[in-house]
Structure formats: structure tokens, C-alpha cells
Amino acid sequence: MTTYQQQMDQATRTLATQGEAWNGISAEYIARMRLQNRFQTGLDIARYTARIMRDDMAAYDRDPAQYTQSLGCWHGFIGQQKMISIKKHFQSTKGRYLYLSGWMIAALRSEFGPLPDQSMHEKTAVPALIEELYTFLRQADAREMNHLFKDLDAARASGDQVAQKAALNKIDNFQTHVVPIIADIDAGFGNEEATYLLSKKMIEAGACCIQIENQVSDAKQCGHQDGKVTVPHEDFLAKINAVRYAFMELGVEDGVIVARTDSLGASLTQKIPVSSTPGDLNDQYNAFIDGEEITSLDQLESGDMLLRRGDTNIRPTRLANGLVRFKPDTGVDRVVLDCVTSLQHGADLLWIETEKPHLQQIACMVDRVRAIEPKAKLVYNNSPSFNWTLSFRQQVFDAWTEEGRDLTPYQRDNLMNAEYDESDLAQEADARIQSFQRDAARVAGVFHHLITLPTYHTAALSTDDLAKDYFGEQGMLAYVRKVQRQEIRRGLACVKHQDMAGSNIGDNHKEYFSGGNALKASGKDNTMNQFG
């Protein structure tokens, strides 16, 4: 990274070539503006963050304790505040990403209004949110750098050489808020060409990692709802190729593809692919098709299909809408085939959508995949669609039952009840929830843990909390006690909301452009001064 002094020297040389016409331009101000805006384009961001992900993946291969995490963010401000908080509490953004959830785009960002997670929202909303997130992260960089420049100016004004050196050191070693985004492209929003075109827009906006699922694009369902329909491998692999070509065309050679399989919960397929030779990929896919064995053509009725499978003929089980049913209890086998096939055809990471957060269930599937692809790694959805409390309490209940422990104080179907919160069983369940990510990284190949839509829920919960008391007896005290007082005491930067929105940056720019004639907003009458 170029140092502050190097940026000034470079700007000074450029200005020297322009003669007196550019005498009103300051080399130091140029250096500051360049350092406040380190990424000129979304492609710069994509290349930078792709390298971060590749390094993190290699670190995980060496040590599974080096797993990564993210939270889903539905607005640029939410992503910005998340990364500011991470830097404040942990002094580093290492291993922390953002997740862009198709569910939250559908629910919160569509011009149609709130929509279910069925790929009905505008596809352009996906790259638009990526661009918005990075716009806010870059603004967080500019704001923090602006404060560092003020510290440098203050140290110079006081003649404090130690403070001046410390300020320069912080400027030269500044860590950006810009981190990788794992971006959900759903099922590609159409055919492989549509997937390619949308991938390009997402990458140009800054995405270094694109997650794509094997559902039917025009029948896509939320991963935790019923009625999911998958496509044959050849269709899905064509879309993986489309994403890779988009990365390569745009020069993001380290771009990461996450191949998601919904086969564990999907009982239907869109079509029966054509097999060329026995045992090929389409033949393996067709082996999972449910059907009735046919020994005579007289058993067929008008409109029936006939599928030759090995030495037998079957009539596939079809619904009234033409979709074809898979054999029951084949989900795990289909997941394993999906995962192995995706890795062998260009995917970098896997996503197995499960119906519950069960460590052994995930590990059993990953172990089978790793028997063929030893470096297989997962992105895992720590979904709010799971009832984590009930699930883990029931897991502990079942484990203790096998151990022969006395469970008469507990009712398995009622374990969500608050009366159990202080019980030994509940404490053990909470301990397992707390260690779930660490344990899954170690034994189940999970490289990246994410929560898809946490900030959807936190926004609803905090708003309910404030509304209940503000519109009740507490009135303004509710806001002061629950929000502002907490912001001040916990050191939240956005308590000075004018500064967070860029007011001080704008003042500095006015001074750069207009000198002493600048009309600045940060004078003594600015009420933000009340916060010190």
C-alpha cells in the first residue's frame, strides 16, 4: 500500500508538470482524497477481496480453526455499521465478510414491495445492493481517514513529533472496511446466458464470490420452504461455467463460486435428462427418479412416459403439472452427487441447505464428499428459519436419553418453554449452540458460517422494543435510555450522525476547493458538539 508521503510526492511531481495553472491545488489534499478512496471501481474491489477469500480458504485448509463468518445485510448502512463495529471491537476485519441474501432483497428491496423468496424481484436489485454496500464501506474508510488526518493536523499544530509520527503510522497502516461479499444469485434468474449477464453486473459492482443454487430458476423456492424443484446436473454446470466465464472476462481470476444444493429438501425434478452412455452423469441422476416398473406396454395410458433404467422399464411418477418425483429417502445421496460433481466442474465451495442445524447430519454428508474430493469446504447457512433453541434442546434430550439419564423433569415437545431456561439441559444446549460454528468448522468442513437474514430480525426486534415504550408511558425517555445513552456509553460512531453521513468530509472538501471562503457546517453552533 502506498504511504502518505509517497502519495504526496507523486502528486507533487504531477502538479509540477502543469505550471502555475494548477497552483491552487494542494499535493497533500490530493494524497488525502486518494487515500480516502482506495478503490476506484467495483472490479478493483472484486480483485482485492477475491484474493482475501483465496488466502482465507488456504488458511482454513491448514487449520480448520481459521474459519470465516458473515452476517446478511439488506442495506449499505447496516453493512457499514457492522464493519465499523467489528473494527472497533476486534481491531481487524480478518475472517469477517458480508453476506448478500436473495431472501432479504426480495423481502426488502423490490419495487414490487415485500415478496417471497421465489426470484420474483428485479434481478438488477442484486448488483445494486452490492454497489450500495461497497459505497457505504468506502464512505466508512473516508470518514475514519478524515479523523486520522485531523489528528495529524492537530499534532503538527502543537509541534508534537511523537503524536505526528503516531498519526502517520495509523494512516499508513490503515485497514479498510472493504471485505468480501458472498452474493446470492439465486438460481441464475433465467438460462445460462442470463446467469452470465447478471454475474457480470454483480462482479462489476464488486462481488468476488457468487453463490448459485441448483433449483429451477422460474420455480425457485426459499431453501426452507416446501415445493423445491431441482435441475439436472448438466443445466446447473452450464450456469457454473457461465459465472466462471464472467469472472475471467472481467479479469477477476481469483473469483469464487459457491455451488448450493437444495437436493436434501427437494423431492421433484423439472425434467429427465438424456443419457448418452450407461453410468454417465445423466444416468446417475435418472437413477433417483421414482416410478412404477412396467412389464407390458398395455400398462401405459395416454400421455405416459417410459424410462429405460438398466434392464427394467419404469413409468416415472409425475405430478399434474408435469414435474417428476424422486424416490423417497434419496436426498442425501443426491446431495453427495451434486457436491462432488460441482467441485469437479469448477465450483470452489459448497453449500448444503439443511432443514436443521445438526452437526452429525452435516458431517456425514461432508465425509462422503471428502472421500472423493478431500479439500471440499462448505459455506453453511446458520439460518433464522431454524428454531435453534428447540432444536438443540431436543438434541440434548435425545443424547441424554441414549445415555440413560433421568429426563422425567422434561417434556420433549415443550422444551421451548421458558421454565426450562435455567435447567441443566438448557445450559448444555446453549453451550452446544455457542460452539456450533467452531465444532462444524472442525468436524464438518465448514469454512464459512453465515446468518442469512439476521439484520431483518434485529431491525424488527429493536423497533418493537423502542415503539412499545416510546408510545407508552416512557415517551422520550425510551429513546434516551434505550438508544442514545447506550450509543454514547458504548462508543458508537453513529451517535454523531452528521459526521457519519459525511458532513465533516464535506467541510474538508469545501476547504480544499474554496480555501478560507468555505462555508462549513462544523462550527461552534453544530449540535453534534454536544457529544464531545
TrEMBL record:
Keywords: Lyase, Magnesium, Metal-binding
GO biological process, one term: carboxylic acid metabolic process
Annotated TM spans: none
Known catalytic reactions: D-threo-isocitrate = glyoxylate + succinate
Highest rank taxon of the organism: Bacteria
A Pfam family it matches: ICL
Binding residues annotated for Mg(2+), in chain numbering: D184
GO molecular function: isocitrate lyase activity; metal ion binding
Binding note for cofactor: Can also use Mn(2+) ion.
Active site location: C222
InterPro entries, sorted: ICL/PEPM, Isocitrate_lyase, Pyrv/PenolPyrv_kinase-like_dom, Pyrv_kinase-like_dom_sf
Cofactor names: Mg(2+)
Listed NCBIfam families: PRK06498.1
Name this polypeptide is given: Isocitrate lyase
Species annotation: Pseudohongiella acticola
Lineage: Bacteria, Pseudomonadati, Pseudomonadota, Gammaproteobacteria, Pseudomonadales
